[in-house]
Amino acid sequence: MSWQFNSTEEIPVSDSLLEQVIGQDKAVEIVRLAALQRRFVLMVGEPGTGKSMLAAAMSEMLPTAHLEDVLVYPNAKMRINPTVAVVPSGEGETVVADAKARRAQQSSAVNYLFWVTLFASTTIMLVFAFMYDTFWFLIAGAVIGVVLFLARRFYLRRTGTVVPKLLVNNGAREQAPFMDATGFHAGALLGDVRHDPFQSGGFETPPHELVEPGAIHIAHGGVLFIDEVSTLSMESQQSLLTAIQERRFPVSGRSLGSSGAMVRSDAVPCDFIVVLAGNMQDVEKMHPALRSRVRGYGYEIYMKEAMPDTAENRDKLAQFVAQEVRKDGKIPHFSPEAVAAIISEAQDRSGVPDQLTSRLRELGGLVRAAGDLARRDEALLVQAQHVHDAREYVRTLEEQMSESDAESWTSVLG
Fold first, then answer.
1. How far is Cα 230 from Cα 284, in angstroms, rounded to an integer?
2. Beta-carbon count within 10 A of 136 CB
3. For residue 347, what are the CA distances in angstroms to 176, 218, 314, 331, 386?
């Protein structure tokens, strides 16, 4: 290593996620370009090589000036087809608040008239019931009360100020959205309509309030990341392709037994950068048109599993250790000897002479285990011995099972 330090606390760590990606220089270069030009990306490689970090880093580089809030309104002409409106980010909450304030004023006036009328009619019916000594006037008073209640409810629902639902709120964002939709089912990815248990009698929820955005809508203006893309059904991949092409996608009910199965909103904006990831088996199972779209309008990146064993890359691994300590927040910093032990492990895990592993997620597990041992020993810094001892704690299940089988055979043969 070229750096001289007493502990990893002295090693500077960038706040930029892109600067924290180690061992993937070509991928970093392509991602910078893709973010600048809003291109799609398909990353192929083994777990732990930095795919999700690169995708999240893209959202940091996107501008926020053109982010939008999305509102959904009831449709007076067709209740099951809510309408959609778009306003600049930060204005959505204001629109909803203003509508609620106007409705509250209307409700206050109607409620005052309702209670005055109800009190007057009840008083009159009680007087008549007392004068004529008959309960029929009491029944009439109850009927009048029910009619007034239903009339009040009908008026507020039909003629009161419409309060939209804020479907996508970007007002509080300091950077472009990043949505990790890995493993999402169709409803969570594409949006859905909630079930309404009260479907009649004036107590049903307005259809526009049942509409829920999907990850593609929340990612509008930002990045949508999907790892292990082959886990998406072909139908969902086709819908994703449609959303990419149209940059708008309606929300519809996806549960056949739900009261919202017939609800379908207007098309909701979903102009996002899609970043797909997986291994070669995932790529082979991708919808051909979806992969063609990515290749035609973006980049395919192969994530390296190893990097040259150079002084520069050793310095980057020292930076990686410092990053992991700061991210974890529960372990001590590492001494130079402990960092050297981590680098030695990176050499062994590469499996190739003069190479260092780029599968840093697994290496991060060793960093945390060594830190845990140092915390147990109440050490101020993680030492090389902690790293060596931690190797025993981070062995894979396969390695543990293999050793157990070997011990069993030794005892049998012995």
1. 8
2. 11
3. 37, 41, 10, 24, 18
Residues 62, 132: Cα–Cα separation, whole Å = 79
With the C-alpha atoms ordered 216, 218, 220, 226, is the resulting torsion angle positive or negative?
A: negative
* 90 Cβ contact list (under 8 Å, min separation 6): 69, 170, 171
pLDDT tens string, the chain, 414 residues long: the values are 566 889 999 999 988 989 999 999 999 999 999 999 999 999 999 888 999 999 999 999 998 888 999 999 998 888 889 999 999 999 999 999 998 888 777 666 666 666 777 677 777 777 666 777 666 666 776 777 777 676 666 666 655 568 899 999 998 788 999 999 998 988 899 999 988 766 555 557 788 889 999 999 999 999 999 998 888 889 999 999 999 999 999 999 887 766 667 889 999 999 999 999 988 888 888 889 999 998 899 999 999 999 999 999 999 999 999 999 999 999 999 999 999 999 999 999 998 889 999 999 989 999 999 999 999 999 999 999 999 999 988 887 777 777 666 555 555 555
Cα(260)–Cα(280) distance, rounded to whole angstroms? 39
Distance CA 236, CA 286 (A): 11
Count how many residues are written for the chain: 414
HSE-CB of 239 using CA atoms within 13 angstroms: 22
Q: How far apart are CA 196 and CA 260, in angstroms?
A: 7
Residue for token pair 């009360």: 145
Residue 408: CA atoms inside 13 Å, Cβ hemisphere, count? 6
Name the pTM for this structure.
0.82
154 Cβ contact list (under 8 Å, min separation 6): 202
Q: How crowded is residue 10: how many other Cβ atoms within 10 Å of its Cβ?
A: 11
